[in-house]
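pasting input
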Amino acid sequence: MSMLVEMVGINKSFGATRVLSDVRFSLERGSVHALMGENGAGKSTLMRILAGVYQPTTGSVRLRGEDVSFKSPKEARLAGVSTVFQEFTLIPNLTVAENMFLGHEPRRKDGSIDSAEVVRRSRELLADVFPQLDATAIVDTLTVAQQQAVEIAKGLTSNADIFIFDEPTAALNSTDVAHLFKVIRDLKAQGKAVVYISHRMNEVFELCDVITVMKDGGWVKTAKAEDFNLHSLVATMVGRELQNFFPPRSQETGEPMLEVSGLKLHDGGASVAFSVRKGEIIGLAGLEGQGQREIMRSVVGVETARAVTVRRRAGGSAMSAVNVTSGFPNAIAAGIGFIPEDRKQEGLFLRLPIYDNIALGKQLNRNMASVAWRSVSKVREIIKSLRVAAADPGAPVGKLSGGNQQKVLLGRWLLSGVDILVIEEPTRGVDVGAKAEIYRLLRDFSDRGGAVIVSSREHAELIGLCDNILVVHDRKIVGQMPAADATEESILGTALGSSSAEDPRAVVH
Amino acid sequence: MTTSETKHETPPRALNARRAVSWVLGLPPAYYVLAILIAVAPLVSATLINPNYWFVILKQSAPLGIAVLAQSLVMRVRSIDLSVSGVFAFAIYFASSGFLKNYPPYVTVLMPIVVGLAVGLVNGVLVAYVRASAVISTLSVSAILIGVVQYMSAGRAPGSTPSWLRVLTNGNIHGLSYSVIVWLGVTVLVSLAFRYLIVGRYFRAVGDNPRAAETTGIPLARTIFVSHTLAGFLTGIAALVQVSALAVGTIKPGFDTFMNALAATILGGVTFGVDRGGVAGPFVAVVAFSFLFAMLTVFGIQEPGKLIVQGGIIALAAIIYGARTGRV
């Protein structure tokens, strides 16, 4: 096979900071190449050089055997490099077709845009790859997966033969992931080359032919995927053996901390009931979109269920009711915290300092006219104990990596002193090293007498982290199992075994 | 990998000089405008650099200054209050029409504040709880107030404002008008509240990300309601100061009041949800604005010309902010 891309001796510095040193990377036609490494390893920077966003300080980039030096992303795109970023670059109020040809629309003789031609050519291109995608649909009305399809289709319009996918599956459910994989395999079959960046190990092993590992801005290893296994790959990425990826489970759990009963998500639906013990982490598992999210949010009152009764232990052995139907502040007052899946949109104030984001924990449920004491030392203590990698608590939280942002949210609730934590997708967008830290922090929280409810799309994560797993299907709990005995198969089996056959999602890809 | 991480990779600005430069570049446009005006002033007219003249400018700026402070409150939580003109019109008409002659003086003093507060409450309910569009609901509240004034006055100019009230503008301590002292006092109070009270934290959080604020447990609707109510209260004070500055009542209180307020707020570094300018930014902007108008008057430029310049400045402020956000 011929080399499509060869990057040799790539160095890149921003001012005095060197972010890439002597990195090599090559890409063959008809292959899927995984680029792995922790956050900050330099994967994105390397790909941005290939995509023309940055220019290397030294080093050469060869495309189809010729030296190239892209001055802008547009040049790279015209040369056949298409990038699908995790955050899309689509214009929401334009149609699919308009987005696909944005910036290089076919023109009529008088210079005006030939709209009919735009639609016609879009349909032609979409027919091969995404036949179900309507070229005239407004992008804003599409699902995340469909928007991603548009993003990929944009690359097709410029007849790209190199596709860079930067964490494409972060926001997709399993059905959409399966479709994306099919598209990537089709691209591969057409002799195109794909660079795939993801933190999800199973995807990498399922999809990729070659794996390149980077660490701290340097190249570490390139080898065929079959020469790695999960353990060796993780070890290469973090540069050390991860002895305890998951912390040990709790030895014994105490009396119930939180009891949820009579939870109805819709009229006439089955009622959901479960409880969490002191020192316990329970996980809500199941196929995507079966009601896990709604159950979690109803328990804390961020969303309102048709009916729900939440009771928590209040000193001694008595349980007291928490009125979550009138909003989340009641749950906070009762010592229950909530961390949403979409940290950037729903959890953090990205432009505000790290300090402010954590200090909010002490400022909730307060009279607006009361004094907000600056508990600087306490916040610093928390930043230190959570090992948030930030020199300056005054820096905006948006500058932190995913793992550190998650720690900031944890810190907020630690400061507020809650002892029950409801957390969605605790490690979404978090790299391997930080994942282990988040798991340890959650386990520390429960070991100190707290209780945790967690949901995750990654069942392996729930199996490793939790004490007990509740399987949710069709907005009810269809099974419960100790996490130590659970496997991904048994969770799926429980979920699907319960469904009354007509559920189309039940077909596992 | 995430985009936040790539930001992580960009170099820390180690050099203090560079940090200072970027700090200066990040200042609200009002500071530049004022600096340029002060630099140019001696060339234009000696009067403009006379300290006494500055006291006059400050005195004339006081009503606008307080109104701008009100506007900046709601803009911090991504809302807007366009009812300033209505409150001013209503307060001026009632104070000068003679309706309140037979009541004790404090009724005349309280009237604008009560009107402002009431309008703020209505705006707050509409925007925060009914979730009506802030632009439309506050503008219609304003239109209703102006309509009421025009109906009651039947198009005739009312009488004069009570002369004893003018002491608020004309009285002074060492040349500094009482109205300016009120303006400064309110500004200091608001900035202290922002710095030290929970309400300041809630405003910042809601301004940065309303959705996150709600999911975090901050009472979103109540925060927006409070901002509108406080803004109404401050607008009332601004109206009182405005009444005291007028000798004769009018039913045309200047349609451009809210335009000026909006322009000064933006120039002062407060755009929707961003409060880079703090409380000082809008203050400087108001001074810069008044100074500019004074200078235009010296040049002999009339109202229409001022309006054009004013529009130009608003556009400029919008462009500067657009360019900045574009770069991020």
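fyi Chain B touches chain A at residues 1-12, 14, 196-202, 204-205, 208-209, 211-219, 222-223, 226, 274 (CB under 8 Å).
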